[in-house]
Design a protein that fits this description.
With 403 residues, this protein is mainly α. It has 16 helices and no strands. It is 79% helix and 0% strand.
């Protein structure tokens, strides 16, 4: 068991990045509004995105390069598109995850109710952890965080199920109104994560390879599968929490991060009992803190590599990008906090409609001559990939036609 835990790393970082807004916010809302009626959306999204996330660590282990290096070989235009999309979304996504984390910190620690101050504290703590400890410390931290997250969430679901008096609906539904459709877009776009996280996964895989010289391909794939399965199980858990505790309560959720965090924890403790407040609070906070720190680490790593590959030597620096991201996040808190709902909507829609682009590029790269023939996907994975491409493209085109 100790040997297995030592080999884990990039997969848990993927889980830490994925289990955030998509789980705590979107999955809980899915359960609150539709009970278990959107399990189909979670199942299809995680199934059809699986191969495209898998190609990240597979390509890195096969070539010793990140997906971004592979994109360069396919053409500079791919990197330019990635750079533009990242600059549009990375500050908004970082702010979105930080604002929910800060709201939960207010409920858990108190001290001050000023969400901007808590955002600054959390961002500063993450920044110091990453600048001082870098990947090695992050790797160890995430093993601890994910274990706490999994245990506390499962315990919370257990208490919710035995104390719930709600009628549980398991019939699957498809929203037909504009609000419901918009929610499905956000839910599926970030479930279990946006597809560009596959790039982060490839970067973390190489970092793990540097740290653990004896790690092999099977270890990396096992690690990824454990992380991916964790995102699915906890996604179902958060849907269950929403269904057991909130479904039919008549409560409407605030779009403000701090108020949402307060509503979330209060609804849980009111229905389950104040005695489990600490379990709920720890589960929620560790969920969002893990997302905040992994996003703050991954985006600068990706931007550093992209800058190098495109020849922007003056900004080819991890420390430069992580400080820029941290400062940009805090500036949004200070000057654009009232527009967060709109900014997050843009980020989630972009994640949804750009999924076919990342899926196609990853599929093309892993099956190209740039990947050793013996490391290319099996026929079954390629069939699932084609089905996934059709699924993601259909839903993106469908959504754009009804806007």
């Amino acid at each position: 068991m100790r040997g297995l835990i030592k080999k884990l790393g990039p997969g848990l970082l993927f889980a830490g990045a994925a289990i955030g807004v998509s789980h705590l916010v979107q999955s809980t809302r899915a359960g609150a509004d539709f009970s278990f009626g959107l399990i189909w959306a979670l199942a299809l999204s995680t199934l059809f995105k699986y191969p495209f996330f898998l190609f990240g660590p597979k390509y890195s282990m096969a070539t010793g390069e990140t997906l971004l290096d592979g994109y360069k070989k396919l053409g500079n235009y791919v990197l330019v598109i990635y750079l533009i999309l990242s600059l549009i979304t990375m500050f908004t996504i970082q702010t979105a995850v930080t604002i929910v984390t800060a709201g939960l910190a207010i409920e858990l620690f108190g001290i001050t109710t000023n969400i901007t101050i808590w955002a600054a504290i959390i961002t500063f703590c993450c920044l110091i952890i990453l600048l001082v400890g870098q990947y090695k410390f992050l790797d160890k931290l995430m093993k601890f965080v994910i274990i706490i997250l999994a245990i506390s969430t499962i315990v919370a679901v257990f208490f919710a199920s035995i104390n719930s008096s709600n009628t549980i609906e398991i019939s699957q539904v498809f929203p037909k109104d504009q609000v419901g459709i918009a929610f499905i877009v956000a839910f599926m776009g970030w479930m279990p994560a946006p597809l560009d996280v596959s790039i982060w996964q490839s970067i973390w895989t190489l970092e793990k390879k540097k740290k653990e010289k004896n790690i092999n391909d099977n270890d990396i794939i096992l690690d990824f599968n454990i992380g991916y399965l964790t995102t699915i199980i906890l996604g179902i858990c958060f849907i269950a929490l929403g269904a057991f505790v909130m479904y039919g309560s008549g409560e409407s959720f605030s779009n403000q991060g701090g108020e949402f965090a307060k509503q979330l924890i209060n609804l849980y403790t009111d229905s389950i009992g104040s005695g489990v407040f600490i379990i709920i609070a720890i589960a929620a906070f560790t969920t969002m803190f893990s997302t905040t720190i992994t996003c703050l680490d991954a985006s600068p790593r990706a931007m550093k590599i992209t800058s190098r590959l495109l020849g922007f030597k003056k900004v080819d620096n991890y420390n430069f990008w992580i400080i820029i991201l941290a400062l940009g996040t805090l500036l949004i808190f200070i000057f654009f906090i009232s527009e967060m709902g709109f900014l997050v909507k843009i980020a989630t829609i972009l994640s949804f409609i750009t999924a076919p682009f990342y899926a196609f590029i990853n599929f093309k790269l892993i099956n190209s001559h740039h990947t050793p023939k013996n490391c290319r996907p099996s026929l079954m994975i390629n069939i699932l990939s084609v089905l996934g491409l059709l699924f993601l493209t259909f839903f993106s085109v469908w959504y754009l036609t009804i806007l």
